[in-house]
Amino acid sequence: MTASIALVDDDRNILTSVSIGLQAEGFVTRVYSDGETALKALIENPPDLAIFDIKMPRMDGLELLRRLREKSALPVIFLTSKDDELDEALGLAMGADDYIAKPFSQRLLIARIRAILRRAELSQPSGTSEPLAPVEIIERGRLAMDPARHRVTWGGKAVTLTVTEFLILETLAQRPGIVKTRNQLMDAAYQDDIYVDDRTIDSHIKRVRRKFRQTDQDFDAIETLYGAGYRFSEE
Looking at beta carbons, which pairs linking 145-153 to residues 24 or more positions away fall under 8 Å? Predict the structure, then answer.
């Protein structure tokens, strides 16, 4: 079935351009220019995924997400400015699934949408009589990752990661001690021929480390091998 995507942004240029891009990829789109109007529609007739701008008048994206989460687990991507790290962290803690900084590539946004929809599909019952094959939980030392539910813990404490961050860490943790080049991590995290440069992967690794160090200030399980890449150590 065709997935439906709700777009909530007070910038009509973004609503129009993103909607056209998504429709060209086969998605059905609904557009809303303010959070209050969107909230009622998202609860009464939920789409498959929603994209919220954080900075909106009347009701911003964070408040919209907070009120939505009282009644729905609908997957949500935030659009943020590059200086909104605090808002990003708060949004993820409140239950957003990912965020993309403006200005952004439409191809990157579409890749993130598809990744989140795949994970949402895996976490739902199949609706058939045949049982789903269990998805293996990755356990490496103090790290535990549940790919089907997109859950991560370190020493039993939850760590909130975006889809991109999760995919990068999952790739490293699947083969501890093995060096993964930046190109290999790009391939794992950015599908559909999306190009990103080395600094993007480095930025994601930096964010992952920072999030784990909020739980354990001595976290050092992700090692940098200069000129080669990164590896996960479970010791």
Answer: 145/169, 145/170, 145/173, 147/119, 147/122, 148/119, 148/122, 148/123, 149/123, 150/97, 150/119, 150/123
